[in-house]
Amino acid sequence: MSQWNSGPYGQDPNQAYYAGQPGYPPQQPGYPPQQPGYPPQGGYPPQGGMPPPSGYPPAPGFQQPPPYGGQSDPYSAGEQVPFYDSSAGTYGGAGYEDPEVKGFGFSDQTIRRGFIRKVYSILAVQLVITLAFICWLLYHVPSQKYVQNNPAFFYVSLATVFVTLICLACCGEIRRKAPMNFIFLLIFTVAESFMLATAASTYKADAVAMAVGITAAVCFGLTLFAFQTKWDFTMMGGILFVAVLILFIFGIVAIFFHNKIVQMVYASLGALIFSVYLVYDTQLMMGGKHKYSISPEEYIFAAINLYVDVINIFMYILAIIGHSRD
Question: The pTM is what?
């Protein structure tokens, strides 16, 4: 039950919506009290020093004090404004607000190490899956003959690789949002592994084993070089793109020339270009002192870059070994 008699006028003081209605507040005799000399005549305030409220004319000679103690507005001038120090309970503290601060950056050592560990963990899983597919189609003869007699599987895997790679490279929401990014990455890895194993099954087992060993040694050495060198390869993105474009055109021309020397030159150039690409992508992942770097959120994109580089190095080295033995 509401306490209607608790207020000074017989109404609840919390019921502010009664204000302005007819009969509210009820007029009582003698209210408000009329005192002689109120309000003061001749200007307000009578003695100066206080700014006049709205509706009162200023006293003669009274001047408004300038805002901010005579200084300009620090917010409009873009100056640094002291922040509230919660530990001391006062304004000012030991620093100032910096509008350029956007949280933890990639230069933080802990974030960078965690990012590198995550990228290489994903890359290791991808390489294990690829090696398992290669061993399956290389040593299991019935599966090898079935795949080679049905080239439709190769073309389906090729189309799957292109679709998933475009989705991961161009669609940031798919690439960054789990578990969708891991699902697309798994599909891409399985399709790429099957396609690579199908191509590797046309070579002899010892040639494939030799190519795997050489690729592992080359990639390990290039990774150490990328971590230790003072040269910044992250500025070579445009040059490497032009080199890949020239290699692509050279590959189209090499299709019409069944010459062993041309094929060897093409495979050697491809291995060289993607070796430099491995150093480039590794330094992009490292960040730090290099000019360009990949965001810590792009671990899927960094793993795909390294995986594609390793796969291409393996394919071109295998081609060099195969043509040298023919």
Answer: 0.65
